[in-house]
Amino acid sequence: MKKDQIFEFFRRLAELNPAPETELEFGNTYQLLVAVVLSAQATDVGVNKATRALFRDIKTPQQMVELGEEGLKQHIKTIGLFNSKAKNVIALSQILVERYGGEVPEDRDALVELPGVGRKTANVVMNCAFGAETFAVDTHIFRVGNRTGLAKGKTPLAVEKQLEKKVPGPFRVGAHHWLILHGRYICKARTPECWRCPVVDLCGYKPKVMEKGAGKKAS
What we know:
mainly alpha, single chain, endonuclease, DNA repair, 2 domains, Endonuclease Iii, domain 2, iron-sulfur, Endonuclease-III-like_CS2, 10 helices
């Protein structure tokens, strides 16, 4: 995808959704961090169902530490890998209390040192909480980047590096939201809904599915 096409790609997505946001529900930066950690290999919908009651009572790392691992498990047992996630959330909360005065650090390197926090999670927090120009490559962005030709790479990090290089200035903060939503609702894994795609003419994917109900599984 050429430079002018990339600009037009994001311009159209931005026109349709001028203020894109994560679909995870949270009330502060700490809750966002917890929600993103819980969302690994889980849906945002599932995480939101589990955290609504939790976040009504737990708003700080200290409160989470006081809740404890077993108490947290009762809230998140509907989420995949809840045992290990509960352990990580309590551990990272303890570190935030002891090292950062209960605050979430505005630093990606510091974030990735927390238990259960990888580069993708850190990028989401940096972007959503602090407005950083980071690109959190999940399965949707990885697929959209490769399928469309926007940012090709064999690994999430390779796709992230391509996005860092190619995404134009006006769209850098919102880019990962637009790409996630595009992959989640239009450029789907099994069959992309090309017939209603706003950037279909810019996309490098050849076997386009231009009629609803048509097409085979896509890669």
